[in-house]
Amino acid sequence: MARSTAVAQPKKPGRVRQFIQVFQMTRKADPKTTLWVALGFLGGVLIGVGIGVLIANGNALTIVLYTVLGVVLGLLAALIILGQLAERAAYSQIEGQAGAVGAVLRTSLRRGWRGSELPVAVNGRTRDAVYRAVGRAGVVLIAEGPRGRTQRMLDDERRKVVRVAPNVPVSVLRVGDDEGSIRLRQISRRLTRLKPQLTRSEVLAVANRLESLSGGLPVPKGVDPTRMRPVRR
Question: DSSP per residue over 120-180, as a string?
């Protein structure tokens, strides 16, 4: 009988285990996580019990049913609150790091947007970078770094876009601590707020044109932007 050469795959953690892991990681970043999650759960339970008492008219079964409903609402509220806190904690851990905008574009872009985790322009000395996203609102250039150091790169990339797609609107977002800049977690929300200008087919055509631009980022595909070093010449 031939021996099996298949390697046993490690079991994925269950939903409860995943919840515990997310809770523990979030609590390390925000010690108030336990309080907020507990308040969300208790709030849902109190709402269910309160509604049951008001409409039960002395019927114990109605109170029990609405209490159970309150527990379900409390669990749902706790999960929603934990999800929001976990997302905020994840952003806070990479905030200010080189390549953080690329990580957001890779994982958090809404449907209809096309973007890359690799920047279209980068300063090897300061590690400031410019990223590009294409959607129905047109082309959005996202600067990662101080305004004074990224403005020239933004101007260069805007000229490239205008040369390839002259009738496509170009918007600019800046991520950082400067006045008028946005936080890392606001990127996706800002993109969805932009007014649609293109059709889906036009988005695809514009994205393909921009991807064909020569002289892009001097970093091979797959390299982590957070570990890049200046190119010595």
Answer: SEE-TTT--EEEEEEETTEEEEEEES-HHHHHHHHHHHHHHHHHH-TTS-EEEEEESSSTT
State phi, psi for 9 to the nearest 5 degrees: -80, 140
**CB of 48 closer than 8 Å to CB of 67:** yes
**139 — phi, psi (to 5°)?**
-105, 130
Query: pLDDT tens for residues 29-78?
Result: 778 888 998 999 999 999 988 888 888 787 888 888 988 999 999 999 98
Q: Which two tokens stand for residue 56?
A: 């039960």
Q: Angle at CA 176, nearest 5°, toward 83 and 214?
A: 100
Other beta carbons less than 10 A from residue 12's beta carbon: 7
Would you say residue 229 has pLDDT above 60?
A: no
Measured at the alpha carbon of residue 14, what is the angle toward residues 9 and 16, in degrees to the nearest 5?
160
Each residue of 158-202: pLDDT tens digit?
999 988 888 889 999 998 877 878 888 888 888 888 898 888 888
Question: Which residues have C-beta within 8 Å of that of residue 143, sequence separation ≥ 6?
Answer: 128, 129, 130, 150, 151, 153, 154, 172, 173, 174, 175, 176
